[in-house]
Design goal:
Layout: E1 2-3, H1 7-16, H2 25-34, E2 39-42, E3 48-53, E4 61-65, E5 68-74, E6 76-81, E7 84-89, E8 92-96, E9 100-108, E10 115-121, H3 124-134, E11 148-152, H4 155-166, H5 171-176, H6 178-191, H7 195-199, H8 207-220, H9 228-234, H10 239-250, H11 254-272, H12 277-283, H13 289-300, H14 304-318
Parallel strand pairs: 1-7
Antiparallel strand pairs: 2-3, 3-10, 4-9, 5-8, 5-10, 6-7, 6-9, 8-11
Length: 319
């Protein structure tokens, strides 16, 4: 299922003519300068990352997407969370409100015109501070609580992100100006049509915040047996309410989320530590190697040994 922007935001996009945008040229030049070859690069501004890819993915890249604002300067991408798919490109940006296990595919890229994107990680504490200023009379009701959403790009936010990138050559600008520009970006997000949803990231005891706390526990303890009842008690919710909120936010059940974490960590261990499938599976919490192999094959499309060999071969070809 592919999610489109809300009807109101879609109408705004069409009315403004932004649906004709194919790229953001100035931002693309800056991203290209700081991502000189394929990959993702951590920049001097904490939480700011630049990415380049010179060809569309043949398969999916599995990763954990942290709370962030993602803007594509050129190209297009799709992320899948559970059974939900989110497509975005230059006219549409992505906001992720909780850490999510995603399968990502760059759908438009070429060597002559690579995929170029920037990601700004979102700080819940700073959002909480700004919510009080942006919504002094209280938040409007939130209709949707999904942990990821796509919306029409706000060119003022693109302009602010571009100015943030322009801070990078000067350490004084990074220290003094970058925090002010990040606040501008957050304020513009909070004042936008999806502002109430962004605000949930920073609100203590909101449904999103409670799910985020459960996710934090799962990420720290993914190899341990877990009961949904215990997770619900941890965030002071009934089991039925917790399960409903978790599914709404992540598109996954708590146990499905834990499985994704386990399998992604096992894959990392096999690649980085030359670990065999049986050992990796045990370390992430699987009692049965055959069960681990079945789950791994369902997620990544190949048995563990074949998948790791393929990734290593592709890495060798790229080098």
């Amino acid at each position: 299922m592919v999610l489109a922007p809300d009807q109101a935001t879609t109408a705004s996009l069409t009315a403004s003519g932004q649906d004709r945008l194919e790229r953001h040229p100035k931002l693309a030049r800056l991203v290209s300068a700081y991502a000189p070859h394929d990959g993702t690069f951590d920049l001097a501004v904490p939480g700011l990352h630049a990415s380049r890819l010179s060809e569309a993915n043949a398969g999916r890249v599995h990763t954990i997407q942290v709370p962030s604002l993602c803007i594509i300067a050129d190209g297009a991408k799709t992320i899948t969370v559970g059974d939900q798919a989110y497509e975005y490109d230059a006219p549409r940006f992505l906001v992720v409100s909780v850490s999510l296990p995603v399968a990502a595919t760059v759908t438009r890229a070429a060597r002559a015109k690579p995929y170029l994107a920037v990601r700004l990680d979102l700080d819940p504490r700073r959002i909480a501070e700004l919510v009080l200023k942006v919504y002094p009379q209280g938040l409007p009701p939130v209709q949707h609580q999904s942990g990821a959403f796509v919306a029409p790009v706000d060119l003022k936010i693109v302009s602010a992100v571009t100015r943030l990138m322009e801070c990078l050559p000067q350490s004084g600008d990074v220290d003094l100006l970058a925090p002010l520009i990040i606040d501008e970006i957050l304020i513009r997000l909070l004042r936008s049509l999806m502002g109430a949803r962004v605000a949930q990231i920073g609100l203590a005891d909101s449904g999103v915040d409670r799910v985020a706390r459960a996710i934090s526990w799962l990420r720290d303890n993914f190899a341990q047996p877990v009961r949904v009842e215990d997770l619900a008690a941890l965030v002071h919710m009934s089991v039925s309410s917790f399960h409903e909120h978790f599914k709404l936010v992540t598109s996954l059940s708590p146990l499905q989320y834990q499985k994704m974490l386990r399998l992604q960590e096992a894959r990392r261990l096999m690649l980085s530590a030359a670990m065999d499938a049986g050992t990796a599976g045990q370390l992430v919490g699987y009692a049965s190697t055959s069960h681990f192999s079945r789950d791994y094959s369902r997620l990544f499309g190949r048995p563990p040994a074949q998948d790791v060999a393929r990734i290593r071969q592709e890495a060798h070809v790229l080098v």
